[in-house]
Amino acid sequence: MAKQILNQGRRWYVLHTYSGYEDNVEKNLKQRIESMDMEDKIYNILIPTEKKIKIKNGKRKVVEERIFPGYVMVEMVVTDESWYVVRNTPNVTGFIGTGTIPTPISEKEIKALQKRMGVEEPKFKIDVTVGSPVTIIDGPFKNMEGKITNIDEAKGKVKVSVSMFGRETPVELDFLQIKKI
């Protein structure tokens, strides 16, 4: 007995996958779309990622991280056939929706997500002000405490006054090397 799925036209849907298998699902789904002639029903696959700045060995690195680990977006027209093709792709655990009926996400949500993904240069979230007490969490001054004396938001750098050998010494650090106390 086949379920009758409501055709809502071309919309974006969210698939739940095993975490870490998002790229694998994208690859498998693309192959299935091609081999099962579904190009007219399944259009785009999107794994939402964003660039983040991390510090590794004292160096700044831009890494791409998944915004929603374990989820893949698919732009498609849901019919019994297209639902079956997507649902039975290896490592797909289901659609987001009620029961077996997928719920489309709004155009506004998908636009906001695409905008977030399209940001080329990651921004710093500097939540300290001059005078804030901080702990240094990376680099040669790790575990020392000090006070912020200067903030260069454009470069993501801060000057921290640290007490060394009985005197205040200014140290320039990357914003990611400090933590607000």
From TrEMBL:
One cellular component term from this protein's GO annotations in UniProt: cytosol
UniProt keyword Electron transport, yes or no: no
Stored PANTHER family: RHO-INTERACTING TRANSCRIPTION TERMINATION FACTOR NUSG (PTHR30265), TRANSCRIPTION TERMINATION_ANTITERMINATION PROTEIN NUSG (PTHR30265:SF2)
Family membership: Belongs to the NusG family.
HAMAP family, A to Z: NusG
Purpose: Participates in transcription elongation, termination and antitermination.
Name of this chain's protein: Transcription termination/antitermination protein NusG
Organism: Candidatus Falkowbacteria bacterium GW2011_GWE1_38_31
Gene: nusG
